[in-house]
Specification:
heterodimer; A: 430 residues; alpha/beta; Rossmann fold; Coagulation Factor XIII, Chain A, domain 1; 2 domains; 6-stranded mixed beta sheet; 23% helix; B: 274 residues; mainly alpha; 1% strand
Chain lengths: 430, 274
C-alpha cells in the first residue's frame, strides 16, 4: 500500500471577524492607543474581538498519486480557503497537511503579470513566480509562445495586449507547469470558447501524464470531464466524497429543490412578453398525477401552459431536457415532423386565451437521476421570436424501479437508458 | 519521495527555512530584475535618472549647506564631502521607500501563490545597489574633476560599508513592509521620516559639529557611524572613530534581527490582511 500523495487531517481554518466600521485595516493611531492601554496584549498579539467563523472545520481526506479530484460547493463553502491552505498562502488554525511531491498551484492565471513588461519578460517572471526554474522556462519557452498564439507581440508591453491575448499568454505559462501535485482554482473559465476548449484538452493531457490534480470549480461540466472523484464542501465541512456523478447529483439536489409544479397565476408577474406568457409547468405521471419522482419504467408527461395574448398568433412550444450534469439531453417541439402525434394547434392562428401543451417522454428512455426542463414559447414569422423563455424551470427525478435490473445491479453509466434490440449469431467454429 | 511538505498550524515565530530560501534564489533574482526593468520604463531619460538624482541633490546641498550655511568640510571640497555621504545614504533611504511598498504592491502575488514573502522586500533592497553603481560613476567623475585622490583604506572599506548599510536597510525594510501591510499610515509617514532622518545623520554635515558627549546618541542611528567612518577613511587623514562605527554596526544588527522577527511574526496573516 503506497502512502497517499496528499493527506489532509483534521484541517481547520478560523477567520476572525471584526465588527469595526471603516477601513478593514487598522490605523496606526488605533494601535498606538492599544499599545498604551494594553501593552501586554499588544505584544502577545491578542485579539480583542471574539467573533470568528470556521471557513474549514475538521476536513479529512487523502488523495493517491495520479488521482484527479474535483472540489465543489456553494460560495462560502470553503473551497477557496481549502486551496489557500494547501498552497501555503495562509496557514491553517488546526490540523495537518502532508504533500509528498513538488506542488504547483494555479489560483489564477497570470499571477504577477506586469503591464509594463513585455510578453517575453512576463513569461519568465510569471514562470518563476509559479515555481519554474529559469532553465525550465527557457526549455519550454517556444512551446509556451506557440500555445498562446501571441508570437508577434512577444516584445510588446503587456498593457498593449487585448484581454484575450493576456489570458491566453497567462494560461500558456500555467499549462506548462509540471509539478507532481497541481492545485487548480477555476482557471479554465477564461478566454473565448475556442481557447477554453484548447485549455480543457491541455488539462486532460496533463492529467493523463499521471499527475495528481485537485481541481476546485463551479463549472460542473469541467469537473465531470476531468475528475472521477469529487469532494463536496458545505459550511467548511466535507459533505460527500465519492464518484463525481453521484456527488454532483447530490449537490444539484441540495441546490434546487425538486419542484414538481411551477405556476404563475398573476399574468403581470409571469415570464414572457406582451404576446405570450408562461402560466404553468408541471410533471405528470402516465395517469396524469402531478409528481416529482418519475418511475423509470413508466411514461412521464411534461405539461406546459401558456397564455396567448395576441389574437391570431402562431405560437409553438419547445422544450429542452437537461441532465443534472448540465448536458442537454434533447430538444423537441410540437411540429408535425418532430412529434409522433399530430398537434392540432401547431402553426394555427390562435385565439387569445390559455393553452396547454403536453410532451410525453417514453418509459425506459431516460437514465436514473435528476433532469431539468427548459421551456420556450416561440413564434415564427420569417424569423424566430422567443416570447417566453424559462430555463431549468422545473426539475424531476427519474427513479430506477428495477425494470432493467434483473441481471446487473451496479452503476449504470449514460445520459439515457433506452431498451434497444440485441441479437447475437453463432458464426461457426472458425 | 524527495519532497515532503508538511503544513501545520504556525504558532508564534515561524523559523527561517534557509534551505527553502536557497531554493528560491532564482525567484529573488527575477523579482529584482523585474524591479530594475520597471524602474525607468516609459521615462525619457531612463537610467539617466539614477545619475541625475544624486547629482542634483549634491548640487543643491553644496549650494545651500556648503556655500550659504557654510557647513565645514575642512580640507575636502564640499561636493565630494556631501556626495560621499549621499552614496550610502541613498542606498538606505531608497531601500526604505522601495521595500515599504514591496508587499502591498505585490498583493496579488501574496494572495495567489506561495513564496517566501521575505523575498519581496529583499529584492527591493537589492535593487538600490544598481542606483549605487550609477552614483558611484558620478562620484569618480567628481573626484577627477576636483583632482582629489581618496585613501586606499577608504576604497577597501567600500564593500564592508555597503554590507553594513544593507543590513540596516534590510532590517528597516522588513519591519516597514510588514507594518505597511497592516497600517497604511506608513506610506504617508515614511517620506516625512526619511526627510527628517537625513538631517539627523551626518550626511551633509560632519559629526564633529555635534557636541562630543551627545555623539553616542547620534550614533544610535546606524547610518551615522557607517557614513562618518566611511568618509573619514576615504577622504581624511584623521583616524576612524571605531567606537562610533561599532555602536552603529551593532545597532544595525539589532535592527536587522528586529526586522526579521517582526516580519516572521506577522507573515502568516499577510494573505488575509493585505
Amino acid at each position: 500500500m503506497t502512502e497517499p500523495i496528499i493527506k489532509v487531517e483534521n484541517l481547520s481554518k478560523r477567520y476572525w471577524i471584526s465588527h469595526e466600521k471603516g477601513p478593514s485595516y487598522a490605523t496606526l493611531r488605533d494601535e498606538l492607543v492599544k499599545i498604551v492601554q494594553k501593552p501586554a496584549e499588544w505584544i502577545m498579539g491578542k485579539k480583542s474581538e471574539k467573533e470568528h467563523i470556521w471557513a474549514l472545520k475538521d476536513v479529512n481526506f487523502s488523495v493517491n498519486s495520479g488521482e484527479i479530484v474535483g472540489v465543489i460547493g456553494a460560495n462560502g463553502a470553503g473551497k477557496s480557503t481549502l486551496l489557500k491552505v494547501l498552497t501555503r498562502i495562509t496557514p491553517p488554525s488546526d490540523g495537518r497537511v502532508a504533500l509528498r511531491g513538488r506542488v504547483g498551484s494555479l489560483l489564477e492565471v497570470g499571477t504577477g503579470f506586469h503591464p509594463e513588461l513585455t510578453g517575453r519578460e512576463n513569461i519568465y517572471l510569471n514562470g518563476a513566480i509559479l515555481g519554474m526554474s529559469r532553465k525550465e522556462i527557457s526549455s519550454k519557452f517556444s512551446e509556451i509562445v506557440q500555445f498562446s498564439g501571441v508570437e508577434k507581440f512577444l516584445d510588446t508591453p503587456l498593457k498593449r495586449y487585448s484581454s484575450g491575448m493576456n489570458v491566453r499568454l497567462a494560461f500558456s505559462v500555467a499549462a506548462h507547469l509540471e509539478p507532481e501535485i497541481l492545485l487548480i482554482d477555476e482557471v479554465l473559465a477564461v478566454g473565448d470558447v475556442a481557447f477554453q476548449k484548447k485549455s480543457m484538452s491541455k488539462m486532460e493531457e496533463v492529467s493523463k501524464k499521471g499527475r495528481t490534480i485537485l481541481f476546485v470549480s463551479h463549472n460542473m461540466a469541467s469537473v465531470v470531464n476531468l475528475c472521477k472523484r469529487t469532494i463536496l464542501l458545505d459550511g467548511g465541512k466535507i459533505v460527500m466524497d465519492g464518484p463525481t456523478s453521484e456527488v454532483i447529483e447530490y449537490y444539484m439536489g441540495l441546490k434546487e429543490n425538486k419542484i414538481a409544479e411551477v405556476v404563475w397565476s398573476n399574468l403581470d408577474l409571469a415570464p414572457g412578453n406582451e404576446e405570450a406568457k408562461l402560466h404553468k409547468v408541471r410533471i405528470l405521471s402516465d395517469d396524469g398525477r402531478p409528481i416529482s419522482e418519475a418511475d423509470i419504467q413508466k411514461e412521464t408527461q411534461i405539461e406546459m401552459s401558456y397564455w396567448n395574448l395576441k389574437e391570431g398568433a402562431k405560437l409553438f412550444v419547445s422544450m429542452h431536457l437537461i441532465s443534472s450534469q448540465g448536458i442537454t439531453v434533447l430538444t423537441t417541439f410540437n411540429a408535425p415532423s418532430v412529434s409522433l402525434t399530430k398537434d392540432e394547434w401547431y402553426d394555427k392562428e390562435k385565439p387569445k386565451g390559455l393553452f396547454k401543451s403536453i410532451c410525453k417522454i417514453p418509459a425506459n428512455f431516460l437514465n436514473e437521476g435528476m433532469y431539468f426542463i427548459s421551456v420556450f414559447i416561440t413564434s415564427y414569422d420569417g424569423m424566430m421570436i422567443n416570447h417566453a423563455v424559462k430555463e431549468k424551470v422545473i426539475s424531476f427525478n427519474v427513479v430506477d424501479t428495477g425494470g432493467m435490473r434483473k441481471e446487473y445491479s451496479g452503476p449504470w453509466v449514460g445520459v439515457v437508458r433506452p431498451r434497444l434490440s440485441w441479437s447475437t449469431e453463432y458464426e461457426g467454429n472458425k | 519521495m524527495e519532497h515532503e511538505i508538511v503544513i501545520k498550524r504556525r504558532q508564534g515565530l515561524s523559523s527561517i527555512d534557509f534551505k527553502e530560501l536557497w531554493s528560491y534564489r532564482e525567484l529573488l533574482y527575477f523579482l529584482a530584475w523585474r524591479d530594475i526593468k520597471l524602474r525607468y520604463k516609459q521615462t525619457v531619460i531612463g537610467v539617466g535618472w539614477a545619475i541625475l538624482q544624486p547629482f542634483l541633490m549634491m548640487v543643491v546641498f553644496s549650494i545651500i549647506f556648503g556655500r550659504i550655511a557654510g557647513v565645514p568640510s575642512d580640507s575636502v571640497p564640499y561636493p565630494i564631502f556631501s556626495f560621499t555621504g549621499l552614496l550610502l545614504w541613498n542606498i538606505f533611504s531608497n531601500s526604505l521607500s522601495n521595500s515599504s511598498q514591496s508587499l502591498i504592491s505585490s498583493a496579488s502575488i501574496i494572495q495567489k501563490v506561495y513564496l517566501p514573502r521575505i523575498l519581496l522586500p529583499t529584492a527591493s533592497v537589492i535593487v538600490t545597489l544598481v542606483d549605487f553603481l550609477f552614483a558611484g560613476i558620478i562620484f569618480i567623475g567628481i573626484l577627477i574633476y576636483y583632482n582629489f585622490t581618496p585613501n586606499l583604506i577608504g576604497i577597501l572599506l567600500v564593500i564592508p560599508m555597503i554590507i553594513f548599510t544593507l543590513i540596516s536597510s534590510l532590517g528597516m525594510g522588513f519591519f516597514l513592509s510588514a507594518l505597511n501591510v497592516k497600517f497604511r499610515d506608513v506610506r504617508y509617514a515614511l517620506p516625512f521620516f526619511i526627510q527628517l532622518l537625513i538631517f539627523m545623520t551626518p550626511v551633509i554635515y560632519p559629526i564633529s559639529i555635534t557636541p562630543l558627549k551627545y555623539q553616542w546618541i547620534v550614533a544610535l542611528n546606524p547610518m551615522t557611524g557607517i557614513i562618518e567612518s566611511f568618509r573619514t577613511a576615504l577622504l581624511y587623514e584623521t583616524p576612524v572613530d571605531w567606537n562610533l562605527l561599532t555602536i552603529s554596526v551593532v545597532m544595525g544588527m539589532i535592527l536587522f534581527v528586529f526586522g526579521v522577527w517582526y516580519f516572521l511574526r506577522t507573515e502568516k496573516t499577510f494573505a488575509d490582511v493585505i
